[in-house]
Amino acid sequence: MNEDAYWREDIASLVFPVTGHGAICAVHRGAFRTLLDTEPSPEACLAYFQRFEAAFRAAAGAKIVRRDILPGTSLHLTSRDIARKLLEDAKSPMENRT
Question: Is 0.85 topped by the overall pTM?
Fold first, then answer.
């Protein structure tokens, strides 16, 4: 499991550092509730992050660019941010089949 990601009980969120940005990104339990369609445990959230880590990191990078978030400024991802990247990743292999 990615050692950089961890659960913060005080904000009920998974957090991970954003490489090259100098801040952290938080994903609230509610976002995982939507993504997993169940009330997730911290362990389930960490496992989901591990499985789709590239999409989480891509979503953070995209949000930084889209919102022009300054370096060192922490941010959070919504289920919509993550789902957008998961859908893009799912479409990519299909688009390359010609």
Answer: yes
